[in-house]
Every structure is written in C-alpha cells, then in structure tokens.
Amino acid sequence: MARQSPGSNNESITELLQAIEQLQAGHYDVSLTTPESEPHAPLYSAITTLANTLHTRQLQRERLNEITASINAGLLLEDILEMVYEHFKDVIPYNRIGFSLIDSNGKTVRAYWTKSDRPLHLSVGFTDKLASSSLKTVLETGKPRIIGDLEEYLRKKPTSISTGLVVKEGMRSSLTCPLINNGEPVGFLFFSSVEPHMYSHVHVDIFMEIAEQLSVILEKGRLVSQLAAQKEEIERTNAELVRVNELKSTFLGIATHDLRGPIGNIRMIADLLSDAEIRLTAEERTSLMRDIGVQSTHMLSLLNDLLDVTRIESGKLELRFETFSLHSFLTQLANRHAMMATPKGTKIVLEDFPDMKMSADPVRVRQVIDNLVSNAIKYSPPGSTVRIGAEKVPNGYRIKVSDEGPGITDEDRKNLFKDFAKLSAKPTGGEKSVGLGLAISRRIVEAHGGTIGVDSNADKSSTFWFVIPAVNKR
Length: 474
Ligand SMILES: Nc1ncnc2c1ncn2[C@@H]1O[C@H](COP(=O)(O)OP(=O)(O)OP(=O)(O)O)[C@@H](O)[C@H]1O
Ligand SMILES: [Mg+2]
Prior knowledge:
This protein is of the alpha+beta class. It is 50% helix and 18% strand.
C-alpha cells in the first residue's frame, strides 16, 4: 500500500489505521512512504519499522519450520546432526557445531559429534565432569549462554580444557544451548564462530523457539542410533551363531558317518568273540582284539579332533606356555615317528640345527608337528624320506617338515587349511583321513600369534612349515 500525497490529516490517520489493521491480520508487507511536512511522520516510520521486524520474524519462523521439518526427517542421530550443520547457518552463524550428551550417570558430559570448517582439536569422545564445568549453570537456568570472547574467558578460567581446545581450533565466540527433554537435561549444542562477539539475544531467541522441538528430534535420533547399533550387534552375534551351528551340524554329520564304521566293526568282533559256536585260534583272537584296539584308537582321535575344533572355535583353547629346548623336543618327536613309520619303510631324518629355547605350549606345538609328520608319511610313497628341520627367523622360530610325496596342487592349496579338507592326495598305506589335522594346526599356530604354510613343487614334494613368534602374548 503506497501513499502518493496525503490530502488531509484525516486521510493520513485513515492510512495509518489501515496499515495497523493489515499488520493485525498478519500481512507484514506494509509499505508506507512518509509524506513531506506530515505531522504524523514519526508514526509512519514507527509502523514501517514494526512491519519490517514482523516480516523478518515471519520469514525466520518459516525458515525454522522448514529446517526442523527436514531435520526431523532424519532417522539416525548422525544424519540429523549433519543436517543441523548444513541448514542452521541461515539462522545462527557458526564455523563449528558440537553436540554433547550427558552420560546416564548424570555426572559427565561426552562429546558425541563435532563438525567444523577448521581442523578439530576437541573431538568425539572428549569427556568432562559436569560438576566442575560451567555447563552446570547453563543446565540450571535452562537458557543458552553466550561467550563473546573465548580468549578472554580462557584467560580468566585457564583450567577449562574444552575452551582451550576450541580456542586452538580458532574459535573466538560461542553460544551454548542446553537440550532438555521431558524436563530432563540430555545434552548441549555448541555453536562457535571464528568471529568474536558473533552471538546476540537474537540467536538465543531463535534457539529458544525451537529448543524443545530440537531436543525431541535429537533424542529420537539418539534412540534410533542406539537401536541400530544394537541391531548390528545382534546380527553379528546371530551370524556367528549360524556359523558355529553349521559347523556343529557338519561335525555331527561327519562324526555319525565316521564313527559308524568302527563301531560296526567292533560290534561284529564282539559278536564273533562271544559266539560259543565259533571256535577261534589264539592267534585269530589276538588279531581280532588288536583290531578293536585300532578301531577304538581311530574313534578316540576323531572325537579328540572334533573336541579340539569346537574348543578352539568357542575361544576355549587355553595355551600353557613353557620355555623348552627345541632340539631335545624335536629329537624325541622324530624318534617316536621313526618307530611308527618303520612298517611303511619311511625314513625320518632330523636335520642339524643350533639348539634354541622356544617359548610356546609344547603339547599343542607337538600336535601340529605330529600332524605334519604323519601327513608326510601318510601321503608319500612307502620307503621315502621325511625331513624335520628348524631355524631361527627374524620374527621367531620356523619349523618345517619336508616329504617326497605328490606335492600340493594349486587347486588344493586354497582348501588345505579348511575344516574337512580331504583333497586330491590320498593315503598311500591305507591310513585313515578325516581332514581336520591341518585345520586344527592352523588354529593352534594362529593362537600362538604365528603363521603356517606350505611350499610345494607339484608332483614331487611338499615342505609344510610354521612360525611361532619369539615373543608371545601370554
Ligand atoms: N604332505 C602332504 N602331501 C600331499 N597332500 C597332503 C599333505 N598333507 C596333507 N595333504 C592333503 O591335505 C588334506 C588335509 O590334510 P589334514 O591333515 O588336514 O587331514 P587328513 O590328514 O586327511 O586327516 P587328519 O584329520 O587325520 O589329519 C589331506 O587329506 C591331503 O589330501
Ligand atoms: Mg592329517
């Protein structure tokens, strides 16, 4: 509404009244041109200023509504805070925003999220005691607090670590806003600027207008994020349970299948031995008894292997570290295997190496070497030679077992250390093969912090090796 030239005093009063009515109706785009030599000139300018202020407020409120609506659309707290950082600049200026939560004990404040256009010094995880901090006053009054000159504040309160850190980031003034949800203080939003004295009551008013809504949105985000984290944790545990369950089912399948054979044999022998009508010579009897021995030894070793894998998988493998002489340890082992390999005509050679003191679980390391040596005998042709050696390497002790067997194909190499890996090489002397030995060996070596592997010339030979670190975590 513009006025060209006022005709009379009455006319201008009418025009001013119309402008006031417009404002009352919520139409703030009132434009009045103060006429020259008008007695009511101060009234014209007062109404124009009021109209402008109301107009700016209205635009600001609309913007705030837009901002809160878009922030409210976020689900996860991180997304919501990201949007706060993106959009709030229109209504509250800042270079940095920090969001802190009061811990459930109500005694500490923890930085949950920070974003700045400068390198951060006070970052996520920073914790402060609420009692000693000046934030307590902000909570008690429930009102935002302005610090116009952070450097001066720090000079007066040099013990404030958080102020020290944001000043280091280049911040010079700040607006700290409490977040209250259902009457309970939950945390703070910190706006900071590189300009001193950036904040005024205008910004406090703006914040107070949306404080309640913002607190609810942030609390919602916090709960959703908490739920999302719990869901992730549950899914992880679930996947682990599914894996262990699958492993268990496979084991059960293998166990029933592999135990059925020997149990059936033992029953047959028992029937034979107890049948009064069947006359057996003493020799036949001894041979049948020996058979029971062989079958039950096989069952026992299968059960022990299964137990080992489940124990290791459920984290129950406890290593008992000892320091021992590697030389006498390997000599004893080589002698035992030499005896056992005699029927197959396999020679066991312990190569020369300087004695070393090794720190490991001797029972478990013996289990690894037993499997490597028995594999070397089992998969090599009768009459071949198996060599056992050891050396000091920069990161520990390397023990190796070489054979003159079929070697490992590239295809087999991928599955060699997995559970139930029965691969292309087959026992050459009718020995049993379950396919767990190397998988257990890998777990034992890894539990020591070491590595296991194989070097092989396909068709000719393999050298299986493992390294046990010199310094072990106990
Ligand atoms: N020295 C070797 N030379 C060639 N192949 C080998 C050698 N050692 C192992 N393998 C192959 O790797 C597979 C897995 O070996 P692993 O020791 O895990 O099981 P296994 O000897 O079959 O049974 P067990 O559980 O009784 O040890 C074997 O079935 C065999 O095919
Ligand atoms: Mg084996």
